[in-house]
Amino acid sequence: MRIVVTGAGGLLGKKIVKVFSNYEVIGVYYSSKPETPNFLQLNLSDLKEIKKIGDLSPDVIIHAAALTDVDKCEKQPELARLLNVEVTKEIAKLSKETDSFLVYVSTDYVFDGEKGNYREDDKPNPINVYGRTKLEGEEMVKKYADKYLIVRTSTPYGSNPASGKDNFALWLLKKLKNREEIGVVTDQITSPTLNTNFALMLRESVERKLEGILHLTDASQISRFEFAITLAKVFGLSESLIKPVTSDLMRWLAKRPKNSSLNVSMASAILSQKPMTVEKALKLLKEEVESGG
């Protein structure tokens, strides 16, 4: 099975290519080089370049590349639309032309956050440009791809920086190890997801050719503040450095959903690789950080 992964140098992409290493994997990237022997550097924003993915004759395309900076999407909606909608449209059309199975990585931000614990069949209602463009990407997949799986995830984190940036967990660790006080919001609830477990759940989903929409997050639905406190406990760092704040004090350009947590009962029921509790996931993160993996 030949698998092409876009965004292969990113937070999720790096783990995806790693867990699929027993297959023929080709990592597509723009600036952050993937950790795979076979790779292809492409500027996906040049839509004509996308046809080069088809030249690879993929059996599976995992489309993980996106503009995920929520505030940058708000500031540059045309760029967000190009990268999250138009690129996805071309990849979806390409998957049909090459008779390949398409996996599209989407987000909890397709929901408005008014109720949380969203199921796969709940009606999306995004409240920012990022969420709207990712939802439009989902619609492109449904319209143009023949065989597809849309996977939604939430607040991914891991032991690897991506594109030179720390994810939320690594940012917390750096601050706490330097004994710096940090303010973390108490009123934004998500389903934080360790990229390793996401990738393992994704591998099983691809191997079984599951189709439709599937929420692939870890099992805990908690605030960023609760996540930070749990991380401090697992790593043996000072919880007193973590100060509760509310989101109205944050200088965010884009609105954030208050509770975009995802229900993972379907994944828990059908997958052998189960969603993890936040405690279990953070213990695995600790092992990875300490082993350099």
Automatic annotation (TrEMBL):
It comes from the Archaea. Keywords: Oxidoreductase. Its EC number is 1.1.1.133. The keyword Cell inner membrane does not apply. InterPro entries: dTDP_dehydrorham_reduct, NAD(P)-bd_dom_sf, RmlD-like-bd. The keyword Zinc does not apply. GO terms for molecular function: dTDP-4-dehydrorhamnose reductase activity. Residues 1-287 form the RmlD-like substrate binding domain. NCBIfam families: rmlD (TIGR01214). PANTHER family: DTDP-4-DEHYDRORHAMNOSE REDUCTASE, METHIONINE ADENOSYLTRANSFERASE 2 SUBUNIT BETA. This is dTDP-4-dehydrorhamnose reductase. It comes from Sulfolobus tengchongensis.
